[in-house]
Structures are given as C-alpha cells and as structure tokens.
Amino acid sequence: MRRLIALGACAAAVVAAIVVCLSWGGRTGGEKPPAISQATTPPSTEVAALKAEIERLKGIVPDQSHAMKDVAYHYTNLWFAGKKENWPLAEFFWAETRSHLHWAVRIIPVRKDPIGNEVRLGEILASIEATRLEDIHKAIGEKDAEKFVAAYKEMLDSCYACHVISGKPFLRLRVPDQPEASIFRFEPEP
Questions:
Q1: DSSP letter string, the chain
Q2: 140 and 76 both lie in a single domain
C-alpha cells in the first residue's frame, strides 16, 4: 500500500514537472516558468483520496465471520458427500472448505487471544492443512469411508482448538445432522 501511495505521489510530481517543462516553452536565460496551474492535483490531496478509497473498500469487504460461514457451509456438505461416498462431490466440498479457510485467514491473519497475545492464524491453518485437512483429502482419494469419518471428526477437533486459542471457546463443533443445502443430491450417480 505504501508503494501505491508513493507511486501516486511520484506520478503526480512527474506530471507537474512535465506541465512546467511544457509551459516553459523554449525560454532562455533567467526567465522563470509560469506558476503550475490549479488543474494539477497536489500529492497530499491524492494521498487523502487514496486513504478515503481504502476506508470505503474496507467497509464493503466481508468480515471473517462471513468467510467462516462459508467454511461451515462447505464443510457440512462435505460430511454428507463423504457419508454417501460421492467422492467427486466430496473432493469439491473439500477444496471449497480449504479455499474459504484461506480466505478467512487473509481477512484477519492475526487475532488477539483474551489476554492480548497474538494468534497467528496462518500458522495454525498451515499445520491443520498439512495434517487433519490432508487426512480428509487422502480418505477421499482412497475412497475410504471409514478413514473419511475418522478424519472428518479429527478435523472438527482441530477447528475447535483454533476457536479456543482465538478466544472463542463457545464456537463448539459437531458432526452435522442435516446438509446446509437441500438442493444437492449427495448420492453418487447410479
């Protein structure tokens, strides 16, 4: 962001210099160039406009709870796809779960726990992704329903551990009893 602001300021300065040179016209000697016209926006105004735009964009970007709602949606549907042994659909919901976990971490990469310590969510996600989430992926690839059930439940425990570390122990998880979306057929093709 600092580079963008610096580039904007540099660009404004270059434009101002070009305007001065063009208005200089071929003068020689001690003649002074005319004053820069008011049409040139001062860099401080551009920086203020960029800051205002950043704040506007921050106000319309979904928050982490929105991304986590999407994680819950995909992870719940993953359970039903895996239970019905619809492995292509399970692969899809696994990938969407993973993608939305990354999105949630991009939104808030570092949280504070209840006593003010930093919780680096990216490091937690990297660990979960290399272990529990990968175990689910392997079970899907092997089309192993038993491994899938065990890996899914272990992933729930890992998710809850992240909630506890982040100061949200009230976000307790369980195996879902109904799909998030009733529109999907979870049974594999006949």
A1: -HHHHHHHHHHHHHHHHHHHHHHHTT--TTPPPPPPPTTSPPHHHHHHHHHHHHHHHHHHS--HHHHHHHHHHHHHHHHHHHHTT-HHHHHHHHHHHHHHHHHHHHH-SEEE-TTS-EEEHHHHHHHHHHTHHHHHHHHHHHT-HHHHHHHHHHHHHHHHHHHHHTT-TT------SS-S-TT---SPP-
A2: yes
Enclosing domain of residue 56:
2-60
In a domain, 184, yes or no: no
Q: What is the pTM of this model?
A: 0.72
Q: Name the phi and psi angles at 48, rounded to 5.
A: -60, -40
pLDDT per residue of the chain (190 residues) written in tens, 0 to 9? 444 344 344 444 433 444 434 444 444 455 555 554 455 667 888 999 999 999 998 888 888 999 999 999 999 999 999 999 999 999 999 999 999 999 999 999 999 999 999 999 999 999 999 999 999 999 999 999 999 999 999 999 999 999 999 999 999 999 999 999 889 999 998 7
